Amino acid sequence: MPNPTDPTTETLAVEAIDPTVGPSPRDGNANPLFDCLVISDLHLGSDMCQARLLESFLEWAVRHSRELVINGDIFDDLNFKRLTKRHFACLKVIRKNSDRADFALIWVRGNHDGPADIISHIVGVDILDEYVYDNGSTRLLILHGDQFDTFITSYKLLTDVACGIFYWIQKWAPHNTARWVRRVTKKWQRNSQLVRQRAIEYARTKGIPNVTCGHTHLALTAEQAGVRYFNTGTWIEHPPFPFVAVVGPSVQLRTWPLAADGSSREITVDVAESSLESTSNA
Q1: Nearest Cα to 233, choosing from 145, 121, 129?
Q2: Which residues share a beta bridge with 251?
Q3: Which residue of 118, 203, 207, 212 is most buried, as measured by CB atoms within 10 A?
């Protein structure tokens, strides 16, 4: 459990979204529910990608927000033969809404995404290294987080070999085994704590009160020295899937799929143990 004496608070308070609130599917974005939504680590092409739920989220997000930011690792790699029909359906939603006048779609690069010129052409949007969302009430720094992960830069060859082994595991081992391997390696690298700490420090130097990353695949929130940190996890784990939601001055980490009863759920994250505890409140 989190240490109450630690100056960093690591509590993920997730509110389920009432599906009856906001515009109907035919209303377009005349009155969107959210100012901005942020997701990360889709890993299209991976056998573990939850593409059906991702497609439903994308369809919902483009109707219920003014802006959607995909914060890195849209693809698992550049072997597009691994993309299924369901993965292409997700890309179709992204491309279809990439040039709307009433909606902004932003893509921040991730370490799995490959050359920007190739991927930008496929997805239909420009790629940024980082992005600052500002709605006049609050600001949110958005970057993937791999730039803070010194393991993948210091041990590039080892990282490439490990990725190759993991792709083989995805193909031939049960999905739960592959997910376990991914979690163990992330914990061994201790990259969640490192990315969190460095992202908070970087946001503080820029005077931005909120920062969100992906990359670590561990969803959590933390607050330190006046900066709130959000990590949006990944779409290759089991649901629910976290996303950042901005409305006015409020920045929250919420989950997909929507709760049918509109209940709220609080998840407490102990990073040291990589454990999740969930409670539901009516």
Answers
A1: 145
A2: 246
A3: 212
Q: At what angle do helices 85-96 and 51-64 cross, to 10 degrees?
A: 10
Tens of pLDDT, residue by residue over 47-82, are 889 999 999 999 999 999 999 999 999 998 888 898
At 213, which amino acid appears? Answer: C
Tokens of 38: 């942020």
CB 225 within 8 A of CB 200: yes
pTM equals: 0.76
Q: Token digits for 264?
A: 């709220």
